[in-house]
Design a protein that fits this description.
Strand content: 15-25%
Number of strands: 5
Structural class: alpha/beta
Number of helices: 6
Mean pLDDT: 98
Largest sheet: 5 strands, parallel
Strand order of the largest sheet: 2-1-3-5-4
Shape: globular
Order of helices and strands: EHEHEHEHEHH
Distance between the termini: 27 Å
Low-confidence stretches: none
Radius of gyration: 14 Å
Helix content: 40-55%
Bound molecules: D-ribose
């Protein structure tokens, strides 16, 4: 189950994500917002991050204008490793090295074509399980 959330800037891109996840046969749960009315990204980022941290959802995809604010908010939730990515290399690397469990995207920064490729890379890349990466993630948790 993939948690989705966005602020008012990310409505259209989130719809693209829903279509992509459907085509990949992945279930998703939408934590809002669902209108283009200006709203506060921490509210929605927090809801989705809590769902990932609790195990209700396996991964999350968050969208705001830059991806910055919503990723900062998500990373306040214990157990969340949210990575803001604007390229495919980073999306793969953050899965392999950081075992990131949430991806953040900037709807005003990253076009839909690239964003979909980033999401695919994020969802399809496994954690490396390398000892050094496990050690570093543990250091973050501690
Ligand atoms: C909304 O105007 C904008 O501040 C928000 O989407 C995001 O970019 C914050 O980091």
């Amino acid at each position: 189950m993939i948690a989705l959330a966005c602020d008012h800037t990310g409505i259209e891109l989130k719809k693209e994500m829903m279509k992509l996840l459907d085509s990949m046969g992945l279930e998703w749960k939408d934590f809002g917002t669902d209108t283009a009315i200006s709203c506060d990204y921490p509210v929605y980022g927090y809801r989705a991050a809590k769902a990932v941290a609790s195990g209700e959802c396996d991964r999350g995809i968050l969208i705001c204008g830059t991806g910055i604010g919503i990723s900062i908010a998500a990373n306040k939730v214990k157990g969340i490793r949210c990575a803001l990515c604007g390229d495919v290399f980073s999306a793969k690397a953050t899965r392999e090295h950081n075992d990131a469990n949430i991806l953040a995207l900037g709807a005003r920064v990253t076009g839909p074509g690239l964003a979909l490729e980033i999401v695919k890379a994020f969802l399809e890349t496994p954690f490396s399980n390398d000892e050094r990466h496990i050690r570093r993630i543990k250091q973050i948790e501690d």
